[in-house]
Amino acid sequence: MQALVAPTYNRLADVLTDAPWDAPSLCAKWAVRHVVAHVTMPARLTPDLFAAEMAAARGDFGVLSDTVAARDAELPADVLLAQLRSPELHAWQPPGGGAAGALSHAVIHSLDITVALDRPAVAPPEAVTAVLDLITEARGTWFGIDLTGVHLEATDLNWQWSDAEPVGPPVRTDGGSLVAVLSGRTLPDGRGLPRVGRLHST
């Protein structure tokens, strides 16, 4: 899974060279530049700096994320693009999350940008499929999504998932958009899935 992180970030950097950085992303209150600043944190923050940021946020990772995203979104675009392509970011794994967590982080946040901008997904198809499997194997609990009675079909991938007793029409869209809605996001056309809990910070 870790090997799929680098191409995801590299292709995202390619897309962002001519993208509107101030456009809204799928992350509430965050523009594209805030998402980029968020995902590139591991390329800037050493363990000691991260610990200092966490202490300043009084142990609240959500506060840390918002603070760092707001501040570092003002970095020059070429700096952030270089960090998207950096080996440090490509090798990073979230504490306790391993390679699966690293790939999920890369794929989901890349989609926060590309879906919002109506651009094709940048993650390799096998990366999108892997994240779809990870989220549905956890039955949506990562993001507080209610998958009761839900049937999902990716229109561009050989992938589908169904609850034991699906009810209603299937949720059919491209794989990237399915990852987005399974991650608690609302698509630009208003589609989403019911949430039963607080959105997880990824």
Automatic annotation (TrEMBL):
UniProt-recorded name of the protein: Maleylpyruvate isomerase family mycothiol-dependent enzyme
Keyword entries, A-Z: Isomerase
SUPFAM superfamilies: DinB/YfiT-like putative metalloenzymes
Alphabetical list of Pfam families matching this protein: MDMPI_N (PF11716)
Cell membrane among keywords: no
UniProt cross-references to InterPro entries, sorted A to Z: DinB/YfiT-like, Maleyloyr_isom, MDMPI_metal-binding
Mycothiol-dependent maleylpyruvate isomerase metal-binding domain location: 11-86
GO MF, one annotated term: isomerase activity
The UniProt record lists the keyword Transmembrane helix: no
